[in-house]
Design a protein that fits this description.
The complex is a heterodimer of chains A (489) and B (174). Helices cover 46% and strands 10% of the residues of chain A. By secondary structure, chain A is α/β, with parallel strands linked by helices. Classes of the chains: A alpha/beta (489), B alpha/beta (174). The interface between A and B is large, with 71 and 50 residues. The structure holds iron/sulfur cluster.
Amino acid sequence: MSSSALRGRERLRPERPAWAAASEPLVRRPLPLVTREAVARPVTGATNARLVQRNMNWNADKWPPAMAELRERGAAIRRETLRDLEGYLRRLTERVEEHGGRVHRATTPDDARRIVGEIARDGDVRLAIKSKSMVSEEIELGPYLEEHGVEVVETDLGEYIVQLADERPGHIIAPAIHKSRADIHDLFERLGGERLPDAPEQLAAFARRRLRDDFHGADMGISGVNFACADTGTLVTVTNEGNARMVTSQPRIHVAVMTLEKVIPRFTDLGVLVPLLSHAATRQRVSVYQTMVTGPRRPGEADGPEELHLIILDNGRSRIPGTQYEEVLACIRCGACQVACPVFRTVGGGHAYNAVYGGPIGAVLTPLIGDQEEGADLPFLSSLCGACYDACPVKIPLPDMLVDLRADYERRHRGPARVGWAAWSRLWGSPLGYRASLLGGRLAGLLPGGLVGRTASLARSWSRGRDVPPLRAAGAFRRWFRSHRGEPG
Amino acid sequence: MTTKRVTPRATRSDPRRYIAALEQVGGRAVALPSRAEAVEEVRRLCGTRPVVVDKHPDLDGVADGLHVVEDPWGAEVGVTGAVAAAEETGTLALAFDADRPRSTSLVPPVHVALVPQARLVPTYADAVEALAALRPVPSAMNLVTGPSSSGDIELTTVRAVHGPGEIHVVLYDE
Ligand code: SF4
């Protein structure tokens, strides 16, 4: 059968802007140019406003005492596996196979794509339904399967919107963050060739109606994995819509795709990790569904997949444990650092990063995985304000890593900015130096406007494509914060 | 790290906490003094609509008089029991097997669960523990907290996206 959810898609094609295109641009351009364009886009302001609002709402009660305790426990649990990732993966593999699942290890995205392609071919798959999975973005699975004659339908509401628009997701857990309600309304009306009310409930209902036949009729379900329990072989997805439940229970083949750091020691760790993830990602006490799959359907069961395949992708991650970046593997993909990041918000979400993962986590992870050249400059897309660390539910020291990655970059690419960055990172590397720079900034602010951007030729080449902010305000937030700390909001 | 075992508790469970927690996320729950009244309530919720009902000792007799159908895709209500229910969050812990298909609580637009109060546990972590205690590990389990929802359109919450848009939990004292 062919997808009914995508029927009418040909009516949508031509409108998508290049910056949001489903695949990343081949040619990476200098960051200052990319960000300048991103900031100038009309949609950026609206996306920024949504993110700013969410960030303000959330800052009020970031880590209430009970949550702060879960955060400590979660941070510890997520580091437990790092010392012996292979050992945990071996146990996971044994358990999954014991329950009748098949485990495939993939070194590169290309391996992973090929494995899924073979499963689809052997299973005579025509229609595949997908729930949200960043790894499937990383391996560009959808386009690959489409090339091989499998129709792929994204079933998460945000991913469905982004797929119809032929774009990339703009945020880890809110893929359509850059789309307004009017955009979505327009997209759905053109797709369906019918008039629709524009209330969010009605738009969601349209997607529900559209996707239901595909849930019922698809041959293959492709899901991500939020947590893979080494002690039981249970694969867990955490969602709100219920599409992952459909994807993992209705089609006759289920393919779960994970990267190797998703393994957790114990099933019972979910009691800590799920509320923590839910709080950080959406400020829910718990997300609506935690779907737990342990092998395929068993004899006598009326539903569930006949085949379960688990793909475990490395893509360079096994290089990371033992380095100063190993804690990045503790990430639970909540997206909180993205919401918290002033740079991410200002450039209107993830597209400007030209990478699968945007925001602080993307700026750290991208240069560490894959071929390591891709996105090596992303660590510079940060103000190093530290908000990402404050927001992170598993306490990954993202700002420190951003600084170290900049140093790595400078060692490899000697350019005009090298001296400046090195001096700056030395300066900001100590609290005293940091405070001195703020003072210096305030003094510089007393100089006639624009002079700073015009001083030395080095600073001039750096400031091209950037707006030098009013330096008189430097450190204003921190001063305000210090004076307000402890007062009820 | 160890977590405490859950099962029988000295103090009586508090269905009011459960009801409040579930209502906070958009579900509905009631606590009734007897099983007979609870079964009556389940029947009232189903009405004459086509329903699928799990085959489970907790649900004995519930299907009588209902418009029971075989195919969940043709049903408007799915009736299940639960392994545990967490007072703190309103969560239902579900396990699936030959008698309890994955689809009952998923495919029909309305989910009704009949749960004895003895299954109430204080916290979400306790509900996880209750599932962890099952042997053999079931092929599929789910923790469900409220109706299906999404924040994908301008970050506003909408209900009833792919899973049931309505969830009713009927608690009873044995
Ligand atoms: S780095 Fe931390 S805040 Fe960012 S997505 Fe990962 S877990 Fe969430």
